[in-house]
Specification:
With 234 residues, this protein is of the alpha/beta class. The chain is 32% helix and 14% strand. A 6-stranded parallel β-sheet has the order 6-5-4-7-8-9, with helices on both faces. The chain has a 3-stranded parallel β-sheet with strand order 2-1-3, with helices on one face. Helix 6 crosses helix 7. The relative contact order is 0.15. It is globular and about 60 Å long. It is built from 7 helices and 9 strands; from the N terminus they run βαβαβααβαββαβαββ. It folds into 2 domains: 98 residues, no CATH class; 117 residues, Glycogen Phosphorylase B (Rossmann fold, 3-Layer(aba) Sandwich), CATH 3.40.50.
Length: 234
């Protein structure tokens, strides 16, 4: 009996959300022993270049939608997205597969980052409280990181102007604002320590990062090896 063919398609939001949706589909298919049939990005918000980003994630597109019978089409795998324990789906083998795909294509040359902190801004502000984390809270995180890793540089990745972050203070802080999707994402994947935002963009990068992850809680729950910031004494 042939396996069920499953694909993820139909989202039109940002790169991080769409990449995480694809990751969720691959993870779910491996859990269910389905065939994952990759459907490339068709539309991406936030100035993403579709051709470049389809190449960037490295997931092979072995079949077209026209020559393959798709049994199940989803925008994302809710079983994975809504799981309180996503490590059930993101097993070591599945993460290794996703990382292998990612590194099959060229990546931008980036400067060394010890600690990358993702601060979600742009379309996220105090009027979107479910996605917003204040600068004052990030100051607590920076103070903690400065104490625990006194020799590490801290690079803030975000959008906007440097003046938007005037209240941030601490040692060894650098800013990397308004860079390309590829450069920012790969910096997250490569960092010795990644502090995620309430964002699929840094969440997806955290899945691929082989080092240490500090996670700010939101509706996508952490993998079992991530450190939850709300559990720390900030």
């Amino acid at each position: 009996m042939s396996k069920t063919n499953y694909t993820i398609t139909g989202k039109n939001d940002g790169f991080g959300a769409q990449y995480q949706a694809i990751m969720s589909g691959i993870a779910y298919c491996r859990f269910k022993n389905y065939n994952y049939i990759h459907t490339p990005f068709k539309e991406i918000q936030h100035n993403g270049d579709i051709k470049s980003l389809n190449n960037f994630i490295g997931i092979p597109n072995l079949h077209s939608e026209n020559d393959m019978n798709i049994d199940i089409t989803k925008r994302y795998s809710k079983e994975v997205h809504l799981s309180n324990n996503p490590s059930i789906f993101y097993t070591n083998d599945t993460i290794a597969l996703l990382r292998n795909y990612y590194y099959t294509t060229s990546k931008p040359v980036i400067e060394k980052v010890d600690i990358a902190i993702h601060i979600r801004r742009g379309d996220v502000n105090m009027n979107t409280p479910k996605r917003y984390t204040s600068n004052s809270y990030y100051n607590k995180i920076i103070k903690f990181l400065n104490y625990k890793y006194p020799t590490y540089n801290i690079v803030i990745f975000s959008e906007g102007n440097i003046e938007d972050f005037n209240e941030l203070n601490g040692n060894n802080i650098l800013f990397n604002l308004n860079k390309s999707i590829e450069e920012t994402f790969h910096s997250f994947v490569s960092a010795k320590i990644l502090v995620t935002a309430k964002s699929s963009f840094s969440y997806s990068a955290a899945i691929l990062n082989t080092n240490e992850i500090y996670y700010i809680d939101f509706w996508h729950k952490p993998l079992k090896n991530w450190k939850i910031i709300s559990d720390l004494s900030l």
